[in-house]
UniProtKB/TrEMBL annotation:
CDD domains: GlpA-like_Fer2_BFD-like. This is FAD-dependent oxidoreductase. SUPFAM superfamilies: FAD/NAD(P)-binding domain. PANTHER family: ANAEROBIC GLYCEROL-3-PHOSPHATE DEHYDROGENASE SUBUNIT B. InterPro entries: BFD-like_2Fe2S-bd_dom (IPR007419), BFD-like_2Fe2S-bd_dom_sf (IPR041854), FAD/NAD-bd_sf (IPR036188), FAD/NAD-binding_dom (IPR023753), Metab_Enz_Cyan_OpOx_G3PDH (IPR051691), Opine_Oxase_asu/HCN_bsu (IPR017224). Keywords: Oxidoreductase. Residues 6-318 form the FAD/NAD(P)-binding domain. Pfam families: Fer2_BFD, Pyr_redox_2.
Length: 468
C-alpha cells in the first residue's frame, strides 16, 4: 500500500484548521503543528477546562463554525489521518532535497526540541497586533486590545474594572463589547479613524452586507452598555504611578494632528490599545518566500513562490476569520491535489474563491479607513520608551537619524539596540520605522524565535526520532 503524502500545517487557527480538514479529507496525512495547548487560534480561543466556563460560546460569534471545525479535527485525529501536535513553538522550517523539516520547541519552557518531516508545508501563522507608543504606554494596566480579549476568552480574567479601549481598527469593537458584557465599565471607545473615510468607500463596503450587519450589532451593544464612542480621537498620554489611573484623549483634525484645546482626562484602571494587525511572516521569510509589503505573496491556489510551500489566512494579509477559512480551504485542496501528482481543478473550490475575492476587496477598503493618525510620531516625546526590551527612547531613535545619519532600520538598530531584545523588533519595529522615516523591510532573521544554544548544538538533520 502506497504511503499517503505528508503535509505539515503550521498554525491551528481558522486558516490552519480549514486547510487541515480539506487536505485530510482528500487522502493526505496531515501534521497540525501549533503553539497552543488547544486548537482554535486567537479567534476561537477557549477557556481552560479547569475554569468550568458554563457558556464559553457567550464570548464568541461564529460558534457553530468553530464546533464544525473542532468536531472535524477530532474525527480525523481519531481516524489517524491527522496528528495534532500541540505546544510546539516553530522556530524554523528547513527546506531539504526530499521535503521539509519543521523545527519546534516543546511546551511553555521551550527548551526541548521537536521536529516534523513532511513533503510539503502550509503556513497558517496568523497575525499579531501593531501598537504605537505614546507617553505612559509602559504603565501596568496598559495592555494590547488583543491581549485584553485573550485574557477574557482564555482565562475569564479582566485587566481592570474601568477601561478605555483605544487606537484604530475593527478589533476594537469586539474588545469593547466583550469587556462591557463581562461587567467592565468601558469609559470610552477612542477610535482615531474618521467615519467620513468609510462613506467615501461605501460601494466596496456595501458589497459585503454581512460584515456591515456585524458592525451594526457591535454598535448596538455598545449603545446598550452606555459606552461613549469618540471617533477621530486619540490617546495622548496615559497617567499613573504604580499603574495606569487615567488617560488623556484629544480630537484630531483632518490632517491627523491633535487639535489644541480638545484634551480631556478620562479616569480608568486599564487601557486596551491597538493600531491594527500585521501578518506573521517570519517562517515564510526564512524559507525565502516573496513578501509583498508586509504579507506573504500567494497565487490563486494560495501557493507561495517557493515550491512545496502554501500560505493562508492572516499571513497573506489581514482579513478576519471568514477570509482565513476560505483561503485555508483553497490551500488545503490545492496541496492535496498536487501532493497526489494531480493538477487541481479550481472549480472545486469556486465558492471559497468567490468569498476570498469579495472579502479581500472589503478589507482593502476597510484598511484605508482604519489607519493610525498621520502625525502620531509628534506625540512620542524624546523620553518615551519606544523599544521596551532594550529601553530605547524616542529621543535615541531621532538622534540616530538626525545626528548619526541612519537611513534604514538596520542601522538604527545597530546604533540604538532598538529591536535587539526578546521580541526581536516585532513590537517596536513599526514605531522605530515611523520615527526614523524608514520604509518597512524584511526582517531577514535566521530563526523565527529565540532558540537555546543546546538545541542548536543537538540539531541532527538525520534524527531518527523526528515526529512524523
Amino acid at each position: 500500500m502506497t504511503e499517503r503524502p505528508h503535509l505539515a500545517v503550521i498554525g491551528a487557527g481558522p486558516a490552519g484548521l480549514a486547510a487541515t480538514l480539506a487536505a485530510a479529507a482528500r487522502g493526505v496525512r496531515v501534521s497540525l503543528v501549533d503553539a497552543a495547548a488547544e486548537a482554535g487560534g486567537q479567534f476561537y480561543r477557549q477557556p481552560a477546562a479547569a475554569l468550568g466556563a458554563r457558556r464559553p460560546d457567550a464570548l464568541h460569534h461564529q460558534w457553530r463554525t468553530w464546533e464544525r471545525l473542532r468536531d472535524g479535527l477530532r474525527q480525523h485525529v481519531a481516524a489517524g489521518t491527522v496528528t495534532h501536535l500541540t505546544e510546539r513553538h516553530v522556530w524554523l522550517v528547513e527546506r531539504e532535497s526530499r521535503g521539509f523539516t519543521v523545527h519546534a520547541l516543546l511546551g511553555p519552557e521551550q527548551r526541548e526540541p521537536s521536529t516534523v518531516r513532511a513533503d510539503a508545508v502550509l503556513l497558517a501563522t496568523g497575525g499579531y497586533e501593531k501598537v504605537l507608543p505614546f507617553p505612559g504606554w509602559t504603565l501596568p494596566g496598559v495592555v494590547t486590545a488583543g491581549g485584553a480579549q485573550a485574557m477574557l476568552k482564555g482565562f475569564l480574567a479582566l485587566s481592570g474594572r474601568t477601561a478605555v479601549v483605544a487606537g484604530t481598527g475593527p478589533l476594537l469593537l469586539p474588545v469593547a463589547t466583550g469587556l462591557a458584557a463581562a461587567g467592565v465599565r468601558v469609559a470610552a471607545l477612542v477610535e482615531s479613524a474618521d467615519p467620513m473615510a468609510f462613506l467615501r468607500r461605501s460601494r466596496a463596503l456595501a458589497a459585503e452586507p454581512g460584515k456591515l450587519v456585524e458592525g451594526a450589532g457591535y454598535a448596538a451593544r455598545l449603545l446598550r452598555h452606555g459606552v461613549r464612542t469618540l471617533t477621530r480621537h486619540t490617546v495622548v498620554e496615559a497617567h499613573g504611578t504604580d499603574r495606569v489611573e487615567a488617560v488623556t484623549v484629544a480630537a484630531l483634525d483632518r490632517a491627523g494632528r491633535v487639535r489644541p484645546g480638545t484634551e480631556r482626562r478620562v479616569p480608568c484602571d486599564t487601557l486596551a490599545v491597538g493600531h491594527g494587525m500585521l501578518p506573521h511572516t517570519d517562517l515564510a521569510e526564512t524559507l525565502g518566500c516573496r513578501i509583498d509589503a508586509t504579507a506573504v505573496h500567494v497565487d490563486e491556489e494560495q501557493r507561495t513562490d517557493v515550491p512545496g510551500v502554501w500560505a493562508a489566512g492572516e499571513a497573506t494579509g489581514i482579513g478576519g476569520a471568514v477570509l482565513s477559512l476560505a483561503e485555508g480551504h483553497i490551500a488545503g485542496r490545492s496541496a492535496a491535489a498536487r501532493l497526489h501528482g494531480r493538477e487541481p481543478d479550481p472549480r472545486a473550490w469556486a465558492p471559497a474563491a468567490r468569498t476570498r475575492t469579495r472579502l479581500r476587496a472589503f478589507f482593502a477598503a476597510l484598511d484605508t479607513g482604519y489607519a493610525p493618525p498621520a502625525h502620531w510620531t509628534a506625540l512620542v516625546t524624546d523620553d518615551t520608551v519606544v523599544c521596551r526590551c532594550e529601553e530605547v527612547t524616542g529621543g535615541a531613535v531621532r538622534a540616530a537619524v538626525e545626528e548619526l545619519g541612519a537611513r534604514d532600520l538596520r542601522t538604527v538598530k545597530l546604533l540604538t539596540r532598538a529591536g535587539m531584545g526578546w521580541c526581536q523588533g516585532r513590537v517596536c519595529g513599526p514605531a522605530v520605522e515611523g520615527l526614523a522615516g524608514c520604509a518597512p523591510a524584511p526582517s531577514r532573521r535566521p530563526f523565527a524565535r529565540p532558540v537555546p544554544l543546546g538545541v542548536l548544538a543537538d540539531t541532527d538533520p538525520a534524527d531518527p526520532c523526528a515526529e512524523q
